[in-house]
Model the fold of this input.
Amino acid sequence: MHSGEPIFSSAHNGSAAGKTGLSYLLAYDSSEHAQAAVDLLIDLAKNPLASSNQATLISVLPTQGIGPHEVMQAAIQRDEQRLSAAGFQTSSILIAGNPAATINAYAQEHQSDLIVIGAKGLRSALRILLGGVAQQVVEYSNSPVLVVRAPYSGLRRILLVVDGSTPSKQAVEYLVPLCPGGERQRCSWLPPSVEVTVMHVLPPPITQETTLRAWALGPEALYPTPIAPLDTAALEAAEERNGEALLAQMLDLLRLGKVEAESLMARGDAAEEILQMAQRKNIDLIVCGSRGLSAISGWLLGSVSRKLVHYANCSVLIIK
Done:
């Protein structure tokens, strides 16, 4: 549960009861990154499917008795009105408590479809949302989390990262969920003109040195049983075929939601390859699953999503 009683709350254009669209929870502190998050949500509202979407702005103060909460309240009301004018059903809450824990508890209690939070927050006397809060929200939330970085100039290019795991497929399905009332048809909430690139990163090649290495075991050394040299070329070719098949499957799933996309593969350290590609293609948003295949069979571990949230120069959407 979130901490304490709300200092301020409001609701406009309806409430969360009986919701039919997506429910967004915007962690708000009036910083430039929070403003960027508001701008991004307004762009999402341009999609015809977004007419019944809801946005709740939540601002968490560290103490109930903090003096300048009137300033924050005014900022919340201003941006709540902007979201309402864009077509959202809106509400807001100003509450005291631990920021990350309060945001995650509120999202779980109200079954938010997406938590939206600025990558960094205010570092003024209010000390409301610091950068570490975003990382904690991503780590412990049960909901997908969109970490937004300023400056925001539009949602034009998306990099969707896949590895064949269940969270990876869920990330694709999140972009093109089943249409309301449809059993097989899919509809996308993305802006119609967005460019999507689906990326798969192959693991680094296994060297012969790795397979012949002696492992220390107490005072002795354990040597592996002699085996035939690995056919690394054949292994890499098989990985590439599997990667191409995976990318084709994900492209087909996106097309069901009328989202055209291109695909690409890379090989190497997952986080490094993704970050470099995002910079090279001027990506506005990276999308990936929070967990992926194990270290034995794949690469997308939780540590990769953490690195993307921490080091990416663009916004990052983590699907859970």
Remarks:
- The chain has a mean pLDDT of 82.
- The domain at 6-148 is CATH 3.40.50.620 (Rossmann fold).
- The longest helix spans residues 232-256.
